[in-house]
């Protein structure tokens, strides 16, 4: 039995679940190792089924470990198949993924699986996925190296005739050319006044002089990478240099102390206090310092002022991404990914951070 299946069954026993219905694609991939956005898993104390339709059945049989899962292509509706399997096994409590199952889907399962009480599974998969093993970290690092190589290849291609949308598309092309399975999220490539929006959308206009922020990531094995670099189109004036240096100072202050056992709230506070100490930047860092990264681009934990008494644990992979955004003028963000280890931390991002003028 795989470690992940054993860990899930341990949590099921603790919570009193006879079975768990897995419908979220990321959790499907995490549990059985096969990427099917429409697949369903049914896991009980002594059996596990991977329900796949005709489009995926051949690949599922090839990629899913038969020692852990029985791969099935139901000839009836999934709800009916699940009911029959649960009734035969004597299960009475079925946990569903309340974070992702729609109201319509839940009502459909309630009608179909009338032999069981349906209960929300809560954070059971968050608890499982929040700590990354070596294989997961390796995928994230490989994706990050692809992203870094692609960014390095993009920089010489930037000219004043380029549009933001062209540079975003070019960066995505380079990541796929260099081996990425896909993009972690819609690439951000915003210049000039558009860079003052932390999640600005690339425009089909020629890039403006001033700051230009690139936020992007590659994917390997379903795992994401995430990084942000801000360059200057043209020459940076003293105000821009000062702003960039302050963002970098805030990030480095966190990177110097981040590690196992550190407070999520404290990490955010360190960066925020440095930025807010400058009157012209006070309140200009409006988002949280960072977030977990894995099979989803935003996962637990969150490094924020609302994190309460949460602590970093060995196995967390988190971003550290302070920024300063001056409305109507420009903005700057610098983002690295950090792997929390026993007694410390490793910065997974190797891309240089000196101010680049293009």
Describe the structure.
This protein has 358 residues and is an alpha+beta fold. The chain has 2 domains: 3-129, 3-Layer(aba) Sandwich (Creatine Amidinohydrolase, Chain A, domain 1); 134-347, Creatinase/methionine aminopeptidase superfamily (Creatine Amidinohydrolase, Alpha-Beta Complex). It has helices at residues 3-15, 25-32, 57-63, 78-89, 103-112, 124-129, 134-154, 164-177, 238-255, 264-276, and strands at 19-22, 40-44, 48-51, 70-72, 93-96, 117-120, 188-191, 210-216, 219-220, 223-224, 227-233, 290-292, 299-303, 317-320, 323-326, 330-333, 336-341, 344-347. The mean pLDDT is 97.
Which helices and strands occur, and which strands form pairs?
Layout: H1 3-15, E1 19-22, H2 25-32, E2 40-44, E3 48-51, H3 57-63, E4 70-72, H4 78-89, E5 93-96, H5 103-112, E6 117-120, H6 124-129, H7 134-154, H8 164-177, E7 188-191, E8 210-216, E9 219-220, E10 223-224, E11 227-233, H9 238-255, H10 264-276, E12 290-292, E13 299-303, E14 317-320, E15 323-326, E16 330-333, E17 336-341, E18 344-347
Number of structural domains:
2
Strand count, sense and barrel status of the largest sheet are: 6 strands, mixed
Summed up, the helix count is: 10
The first-to-last residue Cα distance is 54 Å
Give a brief description.
The protein has two domains: 127 residues, Creatinase/prolidase N-terminal domain (Creatine Amidinohydrolase, Chain A, domain 1, 3-Layer(aba) Sandwich), CATH 3.40.350.10; 214 residues, Creatinase/methionine aminopeptidase superfamily (Creatine Amidinohydrolase).
Keyphrases for this structure?
358 residues, Creatine Amidinohydrolase, three-stranded antiparallel beta sheet, six-stranded mixed beta sheet, alpha+beta, Creatine Amidinohydrolase, Chain A, domain 1, 2 domains, 18 strands, elongated, 10 helices
């Amino acid at each position: 039995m795989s470690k992940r299946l054993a860990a899930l069954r341990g949590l099921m026993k603790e919570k009193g679940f006879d079975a768990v219905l897995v419908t979220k694609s990321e959790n499907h991939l995490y549990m059985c190792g096969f990427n099917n956005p429409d697949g369903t898993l049914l896991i009980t104390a002594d059996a596990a089924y991977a329900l796949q339709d005709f489009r995926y059945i051949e690949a599922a049989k090839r990629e899913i470990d038969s020692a852990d899962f029985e791969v099935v292509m139901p000839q009836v509706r999934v709800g009916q198949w699940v009911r029959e399997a649960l009734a035969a096994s004597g299960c009475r409590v079925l946990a569903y993924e309340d974070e992702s199952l729609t109201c319509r889907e839940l009502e459909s399962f309630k009608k179909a699986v009338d032999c069981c009480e349906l209960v929300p599974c809560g954070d059971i998969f968050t608890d499982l996925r929040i700590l990354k093993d070596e294989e997961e970290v390796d995928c994230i690092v490989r994706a990050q190296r692809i992203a870094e190589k692609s960014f390095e290849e993009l920089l010489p291609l930037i000219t004043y005739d380029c549009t933001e949308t062209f540079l975003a598309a070019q960066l995505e092309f380079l990541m796929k050319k260099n081996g990425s399975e896909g993009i972690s999220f819609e690439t951000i490539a915003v210049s000039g006044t558009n860079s003052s929006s932390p999640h600005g959308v690339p425009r089909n206009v020629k890039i403006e002089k001033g700051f230009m922020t690139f936020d992007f990531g590659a994917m390997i094995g379903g795992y994401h990478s995430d990084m942000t670099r801000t360059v200057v189109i043209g020459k940076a004036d003293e105000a821009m240099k000062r702003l960039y240096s302050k963002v970098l100072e805030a990030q480095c202050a966190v990177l110097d102390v981040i590690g196992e056992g550190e407070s999520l709230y404290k990490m955010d506070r360190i960066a925020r206090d440095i930025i807010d100490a400058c009157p012209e930047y006070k309140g200009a860092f409006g988002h949280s310092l960072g977030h977990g990264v894995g099979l989803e681009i935003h996962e637990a934990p969150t490094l924020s002022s609302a994190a309460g008494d949460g602590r970093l644990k060995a196995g967390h992979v988190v971003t550290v991404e302070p920024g300063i955004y001056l409305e109507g003028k420009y903005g700057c963000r610098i983002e690295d990914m950090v792997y929390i280890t026993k007694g410390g931390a490793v910065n997974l991002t190797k891309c240089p951070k000196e101010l680049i003028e293009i």
